[in-house]
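G., before I forget:
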Amino acid sequence: MGAHDNDRERDRQREKALARRLAQAFDNIAASSAGDCPDADQIAAYHQRALSQEENTQCESHFAACTRCRKILTVLAASAEAPLAERPLTHQEVAKLGEFASAVHRRPTAKSQRVRSFPWRFPWLVPAFGVAAALAVWFIVRPPWRLAAPDSSQVLIAQSPKATVPAVGQDAAPAAEALNAPARDAAAPAQPRSSTMPQTLQTPAAESDRLDKLAAVDGAANQALKDEQTVRESIPLGVVGGVSGDRIGAPETPQQTAAPAAPPRPANAAPFATEGEIRAMRQQAAPAAAGARANAPLVAADAASAGFSVLLQSPSSAVSWRAGTAGRIERSLDGGRTWQAQQSPLRENWLAGSAVTDVICWLVGANGAIARTLDGMRWERIAPPPLDAAAGSQPDWVVVASSSAQTATITAGDQQRYTTQDGGRTWRKQ
Amino acid sequence: MLETTPMSPESVSESLTAFLTQHNSLLQHLYAEAGCAKWRISHERFAEALHRSVEKRFRGTRTSVPGVEAYLKILHLQDLALACACGSGNEAAWEFFVAQYRPELRAAARAILRASGAGDEARAEELADSLYAELYGVGPTGSVRQTSLFKYFHGRSKLSTWLRSVLAQRHVDALRTERRMVSLDDQPEGTLPSRLAQTGPAPVDPHRARYLALLDAALAAALARLTPRERMLLSLFYLDQLTLAQIGRTLHEHESTVSRQLERVRGRLRELVTESLRSGRPAEDGGRSEPGLDPAQVELVFEYAFEDWAFDLSRALSRGGSDGGST
């Protein structure tokens, strides 16, 4: 063991020594091979991953040797960022955001009145003529959790079930503490983001054990990735979907999230407010500068009325997608103010999604529906895993977790899980 | 940087005619899909724009009809139509462009300047608006219509991405010009030491000099064996000194993916260099061959390298600042 450690140490030192000499080495390369800088057209195409393999390699060869072009690429990437607040929220602001979210939820519209009589809250999911359909889907998707707490709404995994949060704002502090509690899995490796660890499920109800299994992350779970989850989750019909990102040092299995039923969280009419608020609460503990979403409630209200059950935002927050019934997909590039319809390859209801980058996104839905975009615009249907002998028809996919264009894990309503590592060409049952 | 088409008028129209004939039905279809009619773009003008795009992409390469058609199908046609219309002076198109893209451009300019630490609203407006004149095609006299910058958009990316690329280009070039004008005496005090060493004075020990030369040769050979993307990763991290997150955004990867990839590349580089040192080099280009080194000698090489850096670092620190990496 000692010898191994010494070797590792020696290797590290050597790598450092080499790193120091890279400047000169790169200078030498640059002198000989840089060639002409690509123009704006090519740089834009490279940035959007629209170049051919050959062009890509050529460009990267040039970029490796050209400081100017690398700088342009970096600036281009930076130009997509538009943080709306440049400091973490204060406690009062979190409270306000929460109150707004609650107010939006409590607004007495005909739809929400009808919905409240059911043991879950998705006013924006219930089209006037589709209550029965919605119910049907609900039962298909969530039979094990029917006996959940009366005020059970789908919540993000980061919410501690123990913290009852009737009006989000008031309880920001205890919720924040709950979030700070150490996670069950203490063996997590490096955490590049924040030090807060969202608590994994510890719901009191018996059914939640099943939830726990579904929600439990791998042994080598990366807490930072979980933080990201809470930020990037959408709130589809009954289930939390979508996680992006990768883990340091951990094996390639992407994470999953599921919907704990217990914690009563009224503010679900405003998923973004919830998300922003969670992040803000994390910021109380850890000085991660995630930035607030001042326009978040607007986005949510919009989604609420338009009948979209899946709402996603890319990590850079420059791009948002929403997806809903009958295969509808829309995208927004301005934080949800305007939406552009996109061509969908399928007519099924979308149930969950995962936005990996500004241009890579996965969607899954009813009847085996899976789709993916690699350029943010064009969606292609991905063939689902072949049916089990026992199964009668394609299952509804209710969760998707993805860390790249090639890797994704999908979960069916009956909790069967499949993973692909080649963009959906082949699937492996978990 | 911006492309020029150095073809004679005759050969242009020849190849354009050939293009139109070969892809006629597809061109009709694309014209409709692009919505050219609403901007009153003629079939000919749009076909010309498509031809320009194809020309640029496939110039100097051998390609087939299916290849060209596949390329045409993935272009951002509506954006291309808008650019075409704006470039030809269609007022309605220009109004639409300004309404649709101005806020985005402003936001991009602001984000760019903020990232450079100069987040000033006025400057952002200036940067964004500086583009308009050229896009509109107004020349230095202010009234004569020159070629609009739109002619350089070929539909390979979204119009907004292309606009941001142009903004980025201008910003970077402006910075570089500024920097060259700043006298070296004005270097700020106490800048952080770069991740890289300065090239120090020639080492006194000839043995040491030879070993370091061997190392540099091995390093150059190893770099050449990496993929372009791996080299890019190294230069983004070590030369540009970006954070993992920044690299992630530039390359559309997650921060932890970048971290993992970077570690892998560093390890690979080390292995390649060590291998090169161990196996030596055959004689090439009038140089002499280098025998391989044994493990003890390899150890020594790296020690010298490490000392070399440590020496330079302390010197740089005592000087109160380094000149920074390459620019």
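Chain A has 13 helices and twelve strands. Residues 2-78 of chain A form one domain.

More on Monday.
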